[in-house]
Amino acid sequence: MARPATVTPERILAAAATEFAARGFAGARVDRIARRARVNKAMIYYHFGSKQALYRELLRLTFRQAADRLRAIAASAVSAPAALDAAIAALVDLARERSYFPAVMLREVAEGGAHLDGATLAALSAVPAAFAELLARGVRTGTFRPVHPLAAYVTMIAPIVFYLASSPIRQQLRRSHLIDAALPVETFVRHVQHTMRQMLAPESIRPARSLHDA
Amino acid sequence: MARPATVTPERILAAAATEFAARGFAGARVDRIARRARVNKAMIYYHFGSKQALYRELLRLTFRQAADRLRAIAASAVSAPAALDAAIAALVDLARERSYFPAVMLREVAEGGAHLDGATLAALSAVPAAFAELLARGVRTGTFRPVHPLAAYVTMIAPIVFYLASSPIRQQLRRSHLIDAALPVETFVRHVQHTMRQMLAPESIRPARSLHDA
DNA sequence: GTCTATACTTCGATAGAC
DNA sequence: GTCTATCGAAGTATAGAC
Fold it and tell me: Whose CB has fewer CB within 10 Å in chain B, the N or C terminal residue?
């Protein structure tokens, strides 16, 4: 019945997520994280030791959750194409629940993994690994053509992350009337699902395009 | 015959490109840019006024160059699918010539365009606009199925930028033997070209998959 | 566990001589 | 145009009372 001794670490993590997503590691301010979490700044150092340790903890949790969802889908009984659609939808859902996810991921890629230690790297790599398992199943049953797993993963995850993280910039573009930047999530998800299914479709079902095109 | 009064601004821009790509706007240090450019820090302020003005100048130049290349390809006489392949190859080439391009673009998306002013935003928007023109030509001739131009653009540009920027992180993954992170550029470019062609292939040539899948 | 107060450092920017 | 020297702001981190 005892209420948890403290909810402070959770609140700090949530506030850190927002701050790191919006400003990156270097741009994030521990003062702002403390204010947003409604805790004293000293508490952050008490619970996490340093700004970097806090950052790594956040990344590990995020990657772990993404990998868990993909593994659950890969292990389910549905057909490979259905699992692929589900994987795309699940990653989009997760990224929208945890709205900091896309920006944090883009930044970490851009920074060349500068803030990653071994444990965080392992958590990160579990995501493409789970996706590769899902692909392998489709290839075994002949439903998917064989592709480079990492190339396929990048083709799927990059547009999702990019699209979601680019929401503010697309908003700016719409306000400035420079291009038509309207693109609803549902439209985009269906587009990615369609693209990935076409990418993985075996050659045999497209005999009309077998040779000499471009 | 007079040699340019100064090459300092060019050297500063080149050094800034490296610094901003590696560390982001907040992480970039004006001192480091000055050292790398072999100029005094005061010269940066003399020529550009502020760290942010320098950053914007760099982004404008980069986006302008990308848009120019796409426009040249869209205006050329080749078939739409050939132009698509060429556009992908051209963007990859440009990004590899200017190796800071991918990381800077990822960061700017992640930051929600926080450092963009009107002129920079206009330069940025010219890139998807040129790509949309290329797509529209294919749709008019019936070579491409109609797609949401921005969705198609994201599906193309995100994997390219993501793949190139992720080179250091993939290197880390390879060293740690967690997953097979080897993926040569040529393999990846062909993968993206294939994926985009399949994405844009008209429905009519794939009658075997018309309905009730997933 | 939580706070106040502050030490220490780094960085963007500028003044002013040449 | 170029340099040295430095100011002032901002930020990470910690000491120490409660």
Answer: N
